[in-house]
Design a protein that fits this description.
Blueprint: E1 5-10, E2 13-19, E3 23-24, E4 36-37, E5 66-69, H1 90-98, E6 105-109, E7 111-114, E8 117-118, E9 124-129, E10 143-147, E11 156-162, E12 168-171, E13 174-177, E14 187-193, E15 199-202, E16 205-207
Parallel strand pairs: 5-6, 6-9, 7-10, 8-11, 9-12, 10-13, 11-14, 12-15, 13-16
Antiparallel strand pairs: 1-2, 3-4
Length: 212
């Protein structure tokens, strides 16, 4: 007998067969049968505020098309950005994703990540992940982007969306800036230009500092 799975006799051996409805063999280990409870809903699975795993691949998002980021990861020499080999910075992961057409999501674990972050047209950037299990809950696993960098415009900006022309999603972050030390100059937690309805901003919290 295999948990949540039909037992099959194959050439005299007992093997795990089809999973029962509502269960998935996620780890590929036959001894524990179909161990992951999930109801398949769609092939696409953009990270959403509910943390729903719509395609039953084990995460809210598309594991096969994702690059992962964790404060304990590494940028140098990273050739995959996989779940068990994440990048250390959002910038590093975004740059890597742009070099591979199949990578459409950057998924970021809890912690404070340095900005400013430049969103990339056509890529999803999502926070709220547990760095150990990669389960998603933006409230329990607060993922912060912080910037106190004074830009050439005189503004302190944490997230920048400039010329976004393809569907792009930004979700699950707390976005903060430091104060602007320059008299009369602004702070902008999120600054957008030449960007239309293709940019989705969902389930974030913005906490800008003080203007100069």
């Amino acid at each position: 007998a295999f948990p949540n799975s039909q037992a099959l006799c194959v050439a005299g051996d007992c093997e795990s067969g089809l999973c029962e409805e509502g269960w998935v063999d996620l780890n590929g280990a036959p001894e524990d049968g179909c161990e992951y409870a999930c109801v398949w809903q769609s092939e696409g699975d953009p990270p959403d505020p509910e943390g729903l795993d719509a395609n039953c691949d084990g995460i809210d998002g598309e594991r096969a098309h994702a690059v992962f980021v964790s404060p304990i990861g590494a940028d140098a020499g990273n050739e995959s950005g996989a779940m068990d080999a994440p990048f250390a910075t959002i910038a590093g992961a975004l740059a890597f994703s742009q070099q591979h057409a199949s990578l459409t999501m950057v998924l970021v674990s809890a912690g404070t990540h340095s900005g400013p972050v430049m969103l990339v047209s056509g890529l999803t950037l999502a926070g709220g992940y547990d760095p150990d299990t990669w389960s998603r809950d933006p409230v329990a696993h607060e993922t912060t982007i912080f910037s106190d960098t004074l830009g050439t415009s005189g503004a302190v900006r944490a997230v920048i969306a400039d010329g976004i022309s393809e569907p792009t999603r930004f979700t699950g972050f707390t976005v903060k800036t430091g104060n602007n030390p320059s008299p009369g100059q602004p702070v902008q937690a999120l600054w957008a230009r030449n960007t239309g309805l293709v940019l989705e901003i969902i389930g974030n919290r913005f906490e800008p500092g003080d203007g100069g």
